Amino acid sequence: MQYKIVYSFSFICLISALNVARGQNLYGMIKTEKGFWMNQTEITNNEYRQFLKDLEKEQKELMLPDTSVWDQLQGFTDPMKKYYFEHPAYDNYPVVGVSFEQAVAFCSWRTEAYNAEHEQKLKFNLPTQKEWEDAAFCNFIGEDVLQFAGCWGSAYDFSRKKKTLSKFNFNFRQKDFGMEFIDGAIFTSAVDQYPSDVNGFNDLCGNVAEMTQTRGLALGGSWFHGSEYGTKGKYLNYDEPTPWLGFRCIAKLV
Ligand SMILES: [Ca+2]
Ligand SMILES: [Ca+2]
Prior knowledge:
Layout: H1 11-17, E1 21-22, E2 25-26, E3 29-31, E4 37-39, H2 45-53, H3 57-63, H4 78-83, H5 100-117, E5 122-125, H6 129-136, H7 145-148, E6 209-211, E7 217-219, E8 236-237, E9 245-246, E10 250-253
Parallel strand pairs: 6-9
Antiparallel strand pairs: 1-2, 3-4, 4-10, 5-10, 6-7, 7-8
The structure holds calcium ion (2 copies).
C-alpha cells in the first residue's frame, strides 16, 4: 500500500532536531566506509513524533504507531501500551509498532525536509540487507565481551564468559544467560544506554530488530530474541508491526 503524504514542513523543528549538516557528517548519522550515511541509533519515539507533527491530520492518522502491539506480550503491559510512544520518559527509546510502509514514509519525509533546506541533495531510505550488514559488521577478535560492546556479525561466543560476566553491553533476551535482567533492560532500552560499537553505532546488536528495504526482513536481533541474532547470517521475519521491531535510515547523495 502506498501513502501519498502532504507535508506542512515545520522547518525550525526539522533543522534543529534532525538534519543539520556538519561537514562530512549529518546530525545523528555516521558516514560509512561505503560512502553513505546511516543513523547512529535506531529512530526514536521523539524523532517519529516530529514526523507526525509535520503531517496533515489525515496523513498523521495513517502514520500513528500501533500501540496495541504490546498486547502481543504476556503480562502486565498496559503501561507500555499507554505511555511508551507518547510519554517524554520514552523520548529516547526506539519507536516500535510501526509498519514497513510507515518506516518508508518516514524516510521519504526526511528526504523532502532535508532537500528543501540544503543545496546538497540526499535521499533517505531504509538500508538494503547488504548496506546494513556492510555498515554494521565488526571483525571483532578480542576476548573481552565488555569491549565487544554489541559488535554485530563477528560470531562471538556469548556463552563462554557468562559465568564471570556481571554486565552485557547490548540488549537481548536475558534468559539466554540464565540470569534475569543481566543486560539491564526487560523490554527496549534507550538508544544511548549502551556504548557504541567500534564504528560509532549503537544497538545494531539487539534492542529492536531493524527493517531493511526487503519487506518482512529485519536484522540485528532484539530484546525479545536470543543473542545468536547478533551474528552474521541470522535474520528475523515479520509480517506486521511488533514491539521488537524498529528501523534506522541511511542517506545517499543524489
Ligand atoms: Ca534485555
Ligand atoms: Ca537494533
